[in-house]
Amino acid sequence: MYINKAMVFGNLTRDPELKTLPSGMSVTSFAIATNRVYNDRDGKRQEQTEYHNVVVFGKQAETASKYLKKGASAYVEGRLQTRSWEQDGTKKYMTEIVADRVQFGPRGNGEGSSYGGGSTAGASNVPDEAPKLPDYPEEEINPEDIPF
User: Measuring CA to CA, which residue among 61, 73, 95 is closest to residue 8?
Assistant: First the structure.
C-alpha cells in the first residue's frame, strides 16, 4: 500500500487564479506559505518559511477563487503531484498539491485580509465575545477522590 497525502495550513501568498479547461472544468491555482519555528544547535530560535503550490478543480475551484484572497489563511488537504515540461531546451519541474479539500481559515476582524464577503445587512458591529472558561476549583484535587 502506498500513501500520497499532503496537509498544510498557512496563508495565501497571492490571489487565486481561476481558469477553465477546454472540457469546461474550472481550475484554480494559488500558493500557501507555512512557517516552521525551531531552535538551532546554539539554542537560537529560527524560523523557516516553505511555499506550496496548490491546484483545485471543479466546484471547489470556483469557491476558492471567489472567497480566498492574498493573505487569507486556509487548510488544504490533497496529494502531491510533480509536473514536468520543456522550456528553452531545459526541462522544468513543479511539485504541487492537488487539493481534494480546501477549508477557509478564520476571518479577520476588519484588519488584514478578508474573504471579500463585505458587510452583511443587519449585522451587529459588536465583536463576538470569547467563550467563558469554566470555573475551576482553587483547592488541590486529590486523585483518590476521583470516582473512576
Answer: 73
The number of folded domains in the chain is 1
pLDDT tens digit sequence for 127-148 = 455 556 566 556 666 666 666 5
Identify whether 85 is part of a domain.
yes
Higher pLDDT, 147 or 100: 100
Q: How far apart are CA 70 and CA 31, in angstroms?
A: 9
Contact 14/70 with Cβ under 8 angstroms?
yes
112 in a structural domain: no
CA contacts within 13 A on the Cβ side of 93? 4
Q: Distance between the two ends of the chain, CA-based, in angstroms?
A: 41
Partner residues linked to 73 by β-bridges: 11
Range of the structural domain that residue 22 is part of: 1-105
